[in-house]
From TrEMBL:
It holds the Pfam family FAD_binding_4. Residues 1-19 form the signal peptide. It comes from the Eukaryota. Keywords: FAD, Flavoprotein, Glycoprotein, Signal. Belongs to the oxygen-dependent FAD-linked oxidoreductase family. Its cofactor is FAD. The keyword Glycosyltransferase does not apply. This is FAD-binding PCMH-type domain-containing protein.
Length: 535
């Protein structure tokens, strides 16, 4: 990269396209770090290259209602993160942090445009990606800029019998995913990612580098489920690794409506959260075309079993005979190979886990619900009908089973609260490749219709949602207005349930001026709050 000092002349530093706060930040950061080559200004090819390097959702970069960062800082050390926070505060700039770029609502690299918008900096920590494995202690230190794929690959390079419970998409950044929850194929046996974090390094609003001991248990509790964006910038996590056998078994079984998909899904709802904890079966449903050209729903039962095929087959016959699992459906492989197989349906080299490039040059919208009671077959049929009537809208439903270890951990153990009583999580997903604003709005409205349609079938009071699948339609903080706890509770209780008030109290203690603000960051609550806030 070309150093910033070679790009910026003194005339550019005072040009009308660059704001005084940004000038102030550049001077402060350069004085503190002597590393101006880590800074990237808009309207340069270097800026666009860095901005797009991990963006997974293009719609925020194309939308006229969004703004881009006024500067990107590409940190390569903890000291750069400290300097960024100190200088951003001193320059009256907002700060947003990006690790992997999957961010469902683009809050790490874009902001809502409004009359009171404050220029913001994106702190890109993707260069902070080292992973250190200690197989004897069964722990790992992983920097927040690493991807899940890099973490998984590093584990597999050191051992064939240890793993880490987290999601299946290898390009997701560790910083956001682990701090926001982290559910996946090992969740039912070992809990979510947050349940296996034992320490963390975080830079707070004053630029201090803190670990679990120095930050205190309240803040460490909050980081495990509510993300770090509202509290500071996480540099690294210490995590416990979990045991897996040398060989695991995977399978994909497809069913259409003519193959009794509805009955099998109905039965899955009753059973999946009660399966042996070594058996994980998720459901992926989407509209398709049958052999005769008629509309149908294709359902894929996507599974990992922590054991050999000869153990799985009798277990599946006993636990879920409706699936009709056959020996030819089952493929034995290592745990590391199963990650990519479960995500892509193909058996590919583990080195693919190291590919950080965005998978699609596209836009998407996603949302989530938790389901507490099985949906009747008649209800499933109505859902399939809705999906088939969506015409060109490629709606996808992904159902992740809960139960097992997730039902044993108390809701208040960490900030992530979605525990006992949930039988599965459902993610709604819609991807498109067109770039016109009107087309985008059409897709977004279909997603909203689907969410309204699903209301009778999912949890209520509150209608719970998963923070890692952020959904701005649940509600948002508005820049320029004081973010009250009461207003934010509309969306906050959906993500965090009874933990939301404690999260706001922690925020009031560690970031009382609300420097770490975004559209869905935790609000500040100090003292005991008003009577209404306590209700």
């Amino acid at each position: 990269m070309v150093p910033l000092l070679l790009i910026l002349s003194s005339s550019l530093l005072i040009s009308p396209t660059s704001s005084a706060p940004v000038h102030s930040f550049i001077q402060c950061f350069t004085n503190q770090t002597n590393s101006p080559n880590l800074l990237y200004l808009p309207n340069t090819s270097y800026f666009n290259s860095v901005l797009l390097s991990s963006v997974q959702n293009q719609r925020f970069l194309l939308s006229p209602s969004s703004t881009k960062p006024s500067l990107i800082v590409s940190a390569t050390s903890a000291s750069h993160v400290q300097a960024t926070i100190i200088c951003a505060r001193a320059s009256s700039l907002r700060l947003r942090t990006r690790s992997g770029g999957h961010d469902y609502e683009g809050m790490s690299y874009s902001a809502f445009k409004g009359p009171n918008s404050t220029p913001f900096i994106t702190l890109d920590i993707s260069a902070l990606r080292s992973v250190s494995i200690d197989t004897s202690l069964k722990i790992a230190w992983v920097q927040a800029g690493a991807t899940l794929g890099e973490l998984y690959y590093a584990i597999a390079q050191n051992t064939k019998t240890l793993a880490f419970p987290a999601g299946l998409c290898s390009t997701v950044g560790v910083g956001g995913h682990l701090s926001g929850g982290g559910i996946g194929s090992l969740t039912r046996k070992y809990g979510a990612s947050v349940d296996n974090i034992v320490d963390a390094w975080l830079v707070d609003v004053n630029g201090r580098l803190l670990n679990r001991k120095t930050m205190g248990e309240d803040l460490f509790w909050a980081l495990r489920g509510a993300g770090s964006a509202g509290y500071g910038v996480i540099i690294a996590f210490k995590v416990n690794l979990v045991a897996v056998p040398p060989k695991v078994t995977t399978f994909n079984v497809d069913k259409t409506l003519r193959q009794n998909a509805t009955k099998v899904v109905a039965r899955w709802q009753e059973l999946a959260h009660q399966f042996d904890v070594n058996l994980y079966i998720r459901v992926i449903a989407q509209a398709d075309t049958d052999a005769d050209g008629s509309k149908t729903i294709q359902v894929t039962f996507n599974s990992l079993y922590l054991g050999r095929k000869e153990e799985l087959l009798p277990l599946a016959q006993q636990s879920f005979p409706e699936l009709g699992l056959k020996a030819t459906d089952c493929i034995e492989m290592s745990w590391i190979e199963s990650i990519l197989f479960l995500y892509s349906g193909a058996r590919v080299p583990p080195e693919m886990l190291l590919d950080r490039n965005p998978e699609f040059n596209s836009s998407f919208k996603a949302a989530s619900d938790f389901v507490k009671h099985p949906i009747a077959e008649s209800g499933l049929e109505e859902i399939w009908k809705f999906m088939m009537e969506a015409k060109d809208e490629p709606l996808v439903l992904i159902l992740d089973p809960m139960g097992g270890r997730m039902s044993e951990i108390k809701e208040e153990a960490v900030a992530f609260p979605h525990r006992n009583g949930n039988i599965y999580n459902v993610q709604y997903f819609l991807r498109w490749f067109e770039t016109e604003e009107g087309v985008t709005e059409k897709h977004l409205e279909w997603m909203r219709k689907l969410q309204r349609f699903m209301a009778p079938y999912v949890s209520s009071k509150p209608r719970a949602a998963y923070y890692n699948y952020k959904d701005i339609d649940l509600g948002r903080n508005v820049e320029g207005k004081e973010t009250s706890y009461l207003a934010a509770r509309i969306w906050g209780a959906k993500y965090f349930k009874g933990n939301f008030r404690r999260l706001a109290k922690v925020k009031g203690r560690v970031d009382p001026e609300n420097f770490f603000w975004n559209e869905q960051s935790i609000p500040v609550l100090q003292g005991f709050g008003s009577l209404r806030e306590l209700l």
